[in-house]
Amino acid sequence: MTFPLLITFHFNAYFCHHEKNLVVRFSDIGWQNWIIAPTTFEAHYCSGLCTFPLQKKMNPSNHAIVQSVMHATDVNRRIPAVSCAPERMDSLTLLYYDEVENVVLKTYPNMIVSSCSCL
């Protein structure tokens, strides 16, 4: 199924993507005393525009397509624009001290942005 409003235009715009790097250093947020490893990780973040009309390379959800049309045609601007947000995320395994100083190895889901989309 294709949507007639999902048109591919070729112009220079800053589209939704996850090329932005966000390095988390646990010492920067005061967690160095309980997180053993890793000391840093690359979390990434989503950035860019989700402007009407949404393009295929923005990987928009069906909801985003409809919301984008609604936003573009809403003269009172009550409908918010579509947002560039994480679509898929990866886990991160941490080695840390728990509240009674046991060493724990645990995998936390949804810690690293692996792809972004207009949602």
From TrEMBL:
Keywords: Disulfide bond, Glycoprotein, Growth factor, Secreted, Signal. Residues 1-119 form the TGF-beta family profile domain. Gene3D superfamilies: Cystine-knot cytokines (2.10.90.10). It is found in: Secreted. One of its GO terms (cellular component) is extracellular space. SUPFAM superfamilies: Cystine-knot cytokines. Belongs to the TGF-beta family. This is TGF_BETA_2 domain-containing protein. The lineage of its organism: Eukaryota, Metazoa, Ecdysozoa, Nematoda, Chromadorea.
